[in-house]
User: Fold this.
Amino acid sequence: MWNLSFTPPQVIEARVLTRLPDSLRQPRPTAWVDANKPGHVMDSFLEGPAFDRAGNLYLVDIPYGRILRVSPELQWTQVAQYEGWPNGLAVHRDGSVWIADYRRGILRLDPATGRVDTVLGHRNSESFKGVNDLAFDAQGQCYFTDQGQTGLHDPTGRVYRLRENGQLDLLLGNAPSPNGLALSADGKLLFVAVTRGNAVWRAPLLPDGSISKMGAFQTFFGASGPDGMALDAEGRLVVAHASLGGAFVLNARGEVTHFVRSPVGATVTNVAFRPGTRELLMTESQTGSVLTAELPAPGQLLYSHDTPE
Assistant:
């Protein structure tokens, strides 16, 4: 049952906006591919879409440790390549690009120079399982997921919050593969894509910063599960699904109102709104493509584009 009106979700057909140029594809074995896509030789795995104030789209290429930039004119540039597996991106208000790196923790990229440094590499000298995605709230606090290889067999994935003063809070420690996450505009709700549980979890954020009464907001099916997420200005949650060939749009009750369908591959890994518009961008990692579609409302204002008072 998708919604209480007992009608199918409205299908929005996406189209290919651009694809990773052949000159930037690297068809060779890597340890990440061996572990996560065994038996395959891949030339890329795009994830982590995020926009800067100039309208540039930043992406990660996980297996090859690359940060890529797509200009408003759809010109691709490799900004950085380093020893790591970058998985998620978020742009800071100061213009730096923060990276959730599976091997190295939370990193920071200077897009002007390509320099990558470490923000947080461990917790109390213990390595992370493998961080996956991150998001800033309106105060600049960084929320991130620590997924590793957790799943229903090992439901010990974590969600952390890194405060601006450096304090690290463990918010959740029992998720089977926490992946994408999103925060409501008022800072009162946290959504977490729990990939191997094939669900999106929802938790109230209390005034003291803790969470309470976390529950399943919507459940799905398929060989994989929910991945990256984004909120629109009217509170709808857009959820990329990594095996069902598109992204689901959920209203405030968790009902599926729309499905944004990929015209190419089935591995839709993440989503981002072009700031100030109704245009949704989706990474389709099977084909190394960036997809585009028009949604009912513009994206929620992000910390990266908000002007401080």
Summary: Residues 15 and 300 are 22 Å apart (CA to CA). The longest strand covers residues 168-175.
